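can u pls check wat happens w/ octanoyl-coenzyme A
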Amino acid sequence: MEGFNYKTILLDQKAHGVWVLTVNRPEALNALNSTVLNEMGEALRQIGEMSYDDARALIITGSGEKAFVAGADIKEINELNEEKATGFAQRGQSIFHELTLLKIPVIAAVNGFALGGGCELALGCDFIYASENAKFGLPEVGLGLIPGFGGTVRMARAVGQRRARELTYTGNMICAAEAMTLGLVNKVFPAGELMAGVMKTVEAILSKAPVAVGAAKVSINQAWDMDVDHAQKNEARIFAELFTTDDVKEGTRAFIEKRKANFQGK
Ligand code: CO8
């Protein structure tokens, strides 16, 4: 399966089953306009319909050296009224929510500015790797806005309420090293080595049982909105469901036979 044709994003296969979605408006620092959001929505639908044979991981990044995504498109925001703003915010929120529903890991490879909607896009991914020139921030209050693509929800969950408040009220940008100290970013790489670093982790994930990785994602995400008792019951249910897959037998048998498991994703 090769790439797809879009105008404002690129959707390419980097290795078998490893997809890279690149927001591709470098002239506007990859700002998210309606076309980008619509194309991202379509791309996620396509990936979501693929079997584990064809899709094992998704990497999200931005085109060019300078930006991951410098936010929602401010020119488009300037034209909104209350009704259209509701639609625009909900569209972004639902697409970023789709990232959490995909049963494959989604990794943000943040290669420059991740501001406003761009920071919120990264927050919607399973985790964030960054190049050392990356900058994170929620500058919306400086535009008379608040983060509207899930930022007031997810930033607090990522770094704690007090740090989220400080970032959101000041709109200050932080560098990759500080973002890592806050726990927003998992790893920082020298510029030019980011994608290789992401791929190393993806390869580690690809060696594991695909259905189990997907089930772990579902359990972690669902647990977030549950109390401990319900979350553990849910985990036990998801755990037990994996015993309907061949990969459980293969993984455990391979351990006993002291060989590498050959997982089939079913
Ligand atoms: N929207 C539209 N165009 C943008 C954006 C953006 N967010 N960011 C940069 N651009 C454009 C610039 O206008 C410029 O275009 P042109 O060359 O035609 O003038 C080009 O990209 C290059 O940008 P700069 O010349 O500004 O580059 P600098 O290196 O000088 O500065 C910055 C880089 C600091 C990143 C700067 O561009 C900047 O501050 N950008 C805006 C960052 C921002 O405020 N982002 C938040 C936007 S609001 C948002 O994301 C809300 C999300 C929730 C929406 C909810 C719906 C209602």
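The longest strand covers residues 9-15.
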